[in-house]
Amino acid sequence: MPRPLTAAVAAALTALLLAACVPERAQITPSDDSVPTSIPSTTASSGLDVYDQTVDWSACGVLECATIQVPVDWTDPTGPTTDLAINRSAATDPANRIGSLLINPGGPGGSGLDLTEYFVSSAGEDLLAAYDVIGFDPRGVGQSSPLQCGDADVIDTYYLTDLVLETEGAIEDARQATVDFAAGCRELSGPLIENVDTTSAARDMDVIRALLGDDELYYLGFSYGTQLGATYAALYPENVGRMVLDGAVDFLLDGEQVAIEQAEGFERSLGNFAEWCLASADDCPLTGTVEQAKAQVKEIALHARDTGYQNSDGDRVNGNELVYGIVVTLYDEGSWPYLSAALQEVADRGTADIFFQLANFYLDKDSSSGEYLSNSMWSFTAIGCLDGPVSEPTTVDSLADFTAQISQASPTFGWWFAGSLGCDGWPWEAKEPVTSLEATADAAPILVVGTTNDPATPYSWAESLTERLGDATLLTYDGEGHTAYGRSNQCIIDAVDGYLVDGEMPVSGTTC
Description:
By secondary structure, the chain is an alpha/beta fold. It folds into 2 domains: 7-146 and 194-252 and 433-502, Alpha/Beta hydrolase fold, catalytic domain (Rossmann fold, 3-Layer(aba) Sandwich); 255-363, no CATH class. Helix content is 41%, strand content 14%. The longest helix has 25 residues, at 255-279. This is Alpha/beta hydrolase. It holds the Pfam family Abhydrolase_4. Keywords: Hydrolase, Signal.
């Protein structure tokens, strides 16, 4: 299943075909004595050494950066440690500062360091005045002892090869490919690959909280970041301060149900795109009804799988790449013109250069060199497969049954969702998975935000996660796209900031 992207990634699509810019994050020596070089640590009741560190901040562009240590394996908390990279944007009103607000962009595999600068450009002024905004790359991600799984050719072969899984032999080959890929990751990444699960990342967040001097965790998580936040609340309910979960992932649902409901979400969003496109008359490359337009998109995707399109360099754009190029534009309605332009190119010239660029944007891959710009793809796999419940090995019959169900839910994308074995063959599972949220009954109230037409994290997940959490309120954004805060409207900003800054929970049932 495709990885939910973050609000920052969706917004950045506006610059996709124009330019790319990554803020400098290298630590440098502060040139201003006003920049603090360290903060006092808080010792946890557990007495673990990792709670006794000193955080040494240094300037990195407009932010401050630091690296702390956390246990590689939280079941052996006094054993070897690994790096965790964090950054900070200081509160604009230090006299009325509440504390530190940890943020997470989702994925799993998204870089919290990358999110911070975007976040402070889009968040509400009251929130930025009251909190130091703290970004962090979760263990194994980005600059936090990043997982490695091979060069670009290895990654391309594993993620971009179009598979037709119609025989037991094809299924066994796909399973063995996962076994071999995981073995390569283990060889290059060491034991960390077995310990990048969400429970471990949540325990890391408690270390961050303590080292920043906060008695409670203030937190805003997007997409997969909602799973991370809910997991923290289950592990440390007494430490939860004000927590907002935007674009909820109900990670306690059955895996097949998650895939089917997400496929439905993308099908619905594609239909909404088609309706918008057809209303633009001569400017739309699709024709007929909404259902006919979606069928045309499916035909293009299947042609890419079976025959392929060329990009401007003469390289083949296959089915996986073309669907990635479609999916990435459905995270925000502001990106729909890119999908229209890509479809128009296929119709006019029979090439798929725009789809190729869009797919590489999704993959965080440089279109010119073919090199991956981050490790988000394989981090997504490593984290998600550790978290996922162990299921029975896939067979021709079980895959055929799943294909029938998901194709009914999503006629356009069902074949694509069924073209992978997911985590079948991944050799490890989380050592301390959170399988219940009952403990959150002892946590402070939590605000869940759901978007009615969210393709990646359907609104129904926001409803069910709200019900699972001990004391939670659901805030609804009636609109398109993935997540709401910072990309929807002022109503959402006011409601979220009202809770995080003033402690005023929105009235249950509030819709923006």
